[in-house]
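Troubleshooting entry. Yesterday's outputs looked truncated, so today I'm pasting the complete records for two proteins to confirm everything comes through intact. If either block looks cut off, that's the bug. Protein one:
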Amino acid sequence: MDEYLLEINELRRRIAKLKFERASVVIIEELEAQLRILKAIYESASGLFSAGDKDRRLQAAFRERQLGSWTFENVYFYVYEQAVAIEPDGHDLATLIWHHDYASPLLSPVAAK
């Protein structure tokens, strides 16, 4: 189990404990939203990483953009950075993260400097 899943599972345990202790609903809802966002980022990174195993163009584009080697950690960081830039505009951020296209920006032509 990687560090990201450990963090997700720790947050799940914390939420369960707070629910058992009948903690503030506001705090529990905030932590549940945080959990959904972390899961969305993790699942999106996993999906992109798997896609890169099947499509070497993604890996080449990743290196071309100087994002590092094609490791799960680097892909996770890329997805995280993309997710942070998403403007929710009143929508559920986790849903937007899940539905965001992370491959297209990698496969689009690199602008000349």
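Protein two, checking that the full record survives here as well:
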Amino acid sequence: MDLSKRPVPRRQRFTILLVGEGHAEVALLTHLKGLYASRGSGVAISIRNARGKGAAYVVNYAIRQTRNAAYDRVVTLLDADTDWNSAVRSKAARARIEVIACAPCLEVLLLQVRDEMVRDGLTSVQIKQQFETRFGAPAHEPRIYSEHFGRQYLDHARHRLGELDRLLRAFAALSA
């Protein structure tokens, strides 16, 4: 046997699973992956869509995904307006799933990135309407992110928005 023809061992990749509650969260996660993840970084990022149904469903969905494959890090991005309670928090913690909950919805976080005022007491529906009025399309439209949420806005806003900072830190392993 010729030992000089041994296959070169493959480098083990760091794997991240990002689970978005719905289409808007997945559009944002995909945008962030494009901005902050470089090819050849040794990190494999998978983005999954839990297709709504509330925080408990998103956490359960993430747990099911981890049964299919081993991930080094699992992060969920969800709205805190439905099912977000201490039982769901505990379940996520036991499963080692990092939850980034936007209260009451993702659109609040996005409006705050662009320094838009969001009045207290508005419902998720009202906030989504404010978002659509401001940006001309709903948050699940991918073009919104490239047009209005460039890296300069995100990097600037992360210091004052805890959820955004936690979300961007999920990509920190990519640049290390």
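Both blocks look complete. Sanity check on protein two: The radius of gyration is 18 Å.
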